[in-house]
Specification:
- With 404 residues, this protein is an alpha/beta fold.
- It has a 6-stranded mixed β-sheet with strand order 16-13-17-21-20-18, sandwiched between helices. Strands 19, 22, 23, 24, 25 and 26 form a 6-stranded mixed β-sheet that branches. Strands 5-6-4-7 form a 4-stranded mixed β-sheet, with no helix packed on it.
- It is elongated, with a radius of gyration of 30 Å.
- It folds into 4 domains: 169 residues, MoaB/Mog-like domain (Molybdenum Cofactor Biosythetic Enzyme, Chain A), CATH 3.40.980.10; 47 residues, Molybdopterin biosynthesis moea protein, domain 2 (Alpha-Beta Complex), CATH 3.90.105; 82 residues, Molybdopterin biosynthesis moea protein, domain 3 (Molybdopterin biosynthesis moeA protein, domain 3), CATH 2.170.190; 72 residues, MoeA, C-terminal, domain IV (Beta-clip, Beta Barrel).
- Helix 1 crosses helix 6.
- The relative contact order is 0.14.
- The structure holds adenosine monophosphate (AMP) and magnesium ion.
- The site of magnesium ion (MG) has 5 residues, from loops.
C-alpha cells in the first residue's frame, strides 16, 4: 500500500496526525450556555447527564387495556378507569382493568397492556381478552431508555437534531457548548472578482470565498470575511494586520510552487511558516503557519483542491480544536465502476457518484473543476501506489459526511 509513497511528499495520515497535534495544542476551550434553539451544529462542552429517568414512569406503548396479569383468571374484566396521556391515574382496582392510551401512565398495580385490537367488549362493558397475554407486554418500564445519572452524551459531541431532541427529552433547555471559533477567510489572487461584477480580461469569479464561508458557518464558526487579497505584499501585510481576535486564518491560493507567495512572506516576517507538500490530489501544497500567534492554514486555490483539503484536513483540525474526538468522516468500501492502471504518487480523491452500487468518477477530475463535486455524491479514495480493476473496492466518503 505504501509503495507509492514519495520521499518529500507528506502522506495524508501524517498531515492529519500533525494537524491533530497542532489542534490539541490550541484548544478553543471557552464555553457558553446556549438555548437548545441555538445549539445546532455546536460542540457540547460538558457531558449531558440525565436528571430524570426516561420514561419517568411506566407507561403504555399501545391504545388498549391495562391489567395485573397475576390476578387474572381468564375471565372478562370490568373497566374501572380511563387513563389518557397526561393524566395521573389512581391505583388499579383489584379484579378490573383500565382503559389506557399510548403514553399514558400505568396505574399502580397494573403490569401488562393488551392492545385494543385483541379484545372484545361484552354487552355489559366488560373486556374479554382473546389472545394469550405475556407479563409486561406493551409496557414501557420506567427508566428503560435512561436512568437518572446516566451520561447520555459525552463532552465533545457535535450537536445535531438528534442530540437536541435527546436533551429536550430530558427537560434540558440550555447546553454548555464551546464558543464559536472565529475564522477569517481570505481569498488571494489578482485574478479574482466577486460575483455580481463584470469580468475583465484574465479575471475569474471567486468561488472559494462562498464555498468556505457557507461551509464554516455550517460547522458552527463565526466567519470574519476578509474578502479578496491582491497579490501584493503591502496589501497582504495590511489585511493581516487588520485581523484581530480570530482563532484561525484560512486562506486560499498563493501556495502553488513557484508563485510569489505574499502571505508566506508576511508570515515569515511576522510569524512562522511551514510549507507542506502533501501526497494528495487534488491538493498538494498546504501552508501551516502562525501570524502573531494565530494559526494560519493556507489551502490550494483550485476550487476542487480547496474542497478536498478543507474537507479532509482543515475541517477535522477545526473540530479537534473544539474538542471533538471523532473527526474522521465515515467511509465505506464500495466496488469501483472504473479501473485505475497507473499507480499514483499521491492519494487521489475522485469526485464520484454511486451508480448501480459502483463508484463512478466524474469524467473531468481537474482540480479547477468544482462542477465535478456538485455532480458527485462523495469522494472516492485511490490510495497512492495502488491500481484498481473494475469491481475492486475502494473507500467512498459521502459528501454529507464532511459538509457539515
Ligand atoms: P494559486 O494557488 O493562487 O496559484 O491558484 C491556483 C489556481 O486556483 C489558479 O488557477 C487560480 O486562479 C485558482 N484560484 C485561486 N483562488 C481562487 C478562488 N478564490 N476562486 C476560484 N479560483 C481560484
Ligand atoms: Mg494565486
Amino acid at each position: 500500500m505504501s509503495g507509492g509513497e514519495q520521499p518529500g511528499l507528506l502522506p495524508v495520515e501524517e498531515a492529519l496526525a500533525r494537524l491533530m497535534r497542532l489542534a490539541e495544542a490550541a484548544p478553543i476551550g471557552e464555553t457558553e450556555r446556549v438555548a437548545l434553539a441555538d445549539a445546532d451544529g455546536r460542540v457540547l462542552a460538558e457531558p449531558l447527564v440525565a436528571g430524570l429517568d426516561l420514561p419517568p414512569w411506566a407507561n403504555s406503548a399501545m391504545d388498549g387495556y391495562a391489567l395485573r396479569l397475576a390476578d387474572w383468571q381468564g375471565e372478562p374484566l370490568p373497566v374501572s378507569q380511563r387513563i389518557l396521556a397526561g393524566s395521573a391515574p389512581g391505583p388499579l382496582q383489584q379484579g378490573s382493568c383500565a382503559r389506557i392510551f399510548t403514553g399514558a401512565p400505568l396505574p399502580a398495580g397494573a403490569d401488562t397492556v393488551e392492545m385494543q385490537e385483541n379484545v372484545e367488549l361484552e354487552g355489559d362493558g366488560r373486556v374479554r381478552f382473546c389472545e394469550p397475554l405475556k407479563p409486561g407486554q406493551n409496557v414501557r418500564p420506567q427508566g428503560q431508555e435512561t436512568r437518572t445519572g446516566d451520561q447520555v452524551l459525552a463532552a465533545g459531541t457535535r450537536l445535531g437534531p438528534i442530540e437536541l431532541g435527546l436533551a429536550a427529552s430530558l427537560g434540558v433547555a440550555e447546553l454548555a457548548v464551546r464558543r464559536r471559533p472565529r475564522v477569517a477567510v481570505l481569498s488571494t489572487g489578482d485574478e479574482l472578482v466577486e460575483p455580481g461584477r463584470s469580468l475583465g480580461p484574465g479575471q475569474i469569479y471567486n468561488s472559494n470565498r462562498r464555498l468556505l464561508i457557507a461551509w464554516l458557518q455550517r460547522l458552527g464558526c463565526a466567519v470574519v470575511d476578509g474578502g479578496i487579497l491582491a497579490d501584493d505584499l503591502g496589501q497582504t501585510r495590511a489585511a493581516l494586520g487588520a485581523l484581530s481576535d480570530v482563532d484561525l486564518i484560512l486562506s486560499t491560493g498563493g501556495v502553488s510552487v513557484g508563485e510569489a507567495d505574499f502571505l508566506g512572506l508576511v508570515l515569515r516576517e511576522e510569524g512562522e511558516l511551514s510549507l507542506w507538500k502533501l501526497a494528495i490530489k487534488p491538493g498538494k501544497p498546504l501552508t501551516f503557519g502562525r501570524y502573531r500567534g494565530v494559526p494560519v492554514l493556507g489551502l490550494p486555490g483550485n476550487p476542487a483542491s480547496t474542497l478536498v483539503t478543507f474537507g479532509l484536513l482543515a475541517r477535522p483540525y477545526l473540530l479537534r480544536r473544539l474538542g471533538v474526538q471523532r473527526v474522521a468522516p465515515l467511509g465505506f468500501a464500495m466496488p469501483a465502476g472504473f479501473s485505475w492502471s497507473k499507480p499514483g504518487k499521491r492519494r487521489e480523491y475522485l469526485r464520484a457518484r454511486l451508480e448501480n452500487g459502483r463508484v463512478v468518477p466524474y469524467p473531468n477530475q481537474s482540480s479547477g473543476v468544482l462542477r465535478s463535486a456538485a455532480w458527485a455524491e462523495g469522494i472516492a479514495e485511490v490510495v497512492e501506489g495502488t491500481t484498481l480493476a473494475e469491481g475492486d473496492s475502494l473507500r467512498f466518503i459521502p459528501l454529507s459526511e464532511i459538509l457539515g
